Amino acid sequence: MLAIIGGTGLTQLANLEITHRQVIRTPYGEPSGALTFGRIKNEEVIFLARHGYGHTIAPHEVNYRANMWALHSRGVKDVVSVASVGGIHPDLTPGRIVVPDQIIDYTWGRKSTYREGNETPVTHLDFTHPYCEDMRQLCMRAAEAAGESYVAGGVYACTQGPRLETKAEIDRLERDGATMVGMTGMPEAILAKELGLCYAHLGVVANYAAGRGASAQGIRLTDVESVLKGAMQRVRTILEHLVSL
Ligand code: HPA
Question: Which reaction does it catalyse (predicted)?
Fold first, then answer.
């Protein structure tokens, strides 16, 4: 079973025929909302809006553990996580689709493991390749099938938010090797790995990162909204192809 996690700009899937919704309780508290069960092109999927269906949960307040646990508890094996990002690399211009292959985590204070507590032996999970390569390939093939160009690979820097970054912070992320910046990729990716889920990001560039391109003087949220509106329509088409591959 495939799950789709929708980020900013994707709180609903218009092409999802909804069958039912289910509120799941987890040992880690409440997920961002009820899971939405339905079909896209006759394939069963589960949808969850990461920031809540009314987009009210900030990146640092998302209960990532509950979200991933809830999906896992319903038999989900594969997860495509749609996430908007700021483009740091010059190729990552607003509206572009990107499938990153690496992560740098700059977040702090988020509950980022299921493996804690006195009863749990200490383990050090391998995270060399943070994304599931099968799901990455599926996202890229789906983009091709939908006739959408995309950037294959890139380094996703996950910042704490909810504020955007300063220019100097983006300069630092670039020196670190990051090509895009978002606020929700972690700890989602590591929790998926702990649960044995095949997880990848389908990134959508919402804006030039701070101090880059048209964001040289600042990031205008009205521009971000209009970019995301257009791009998420294309993401929905990619997802239609993805479910039937
Ligand atoms: N910074 C961090 N997260 C983001 C951005 C950004 O510029 N754009 C979309 N998500």
Answer: a purine D-ribonucleoside + phosphate = a purine nucleobase + alpha-D-ribose 1-phosphate
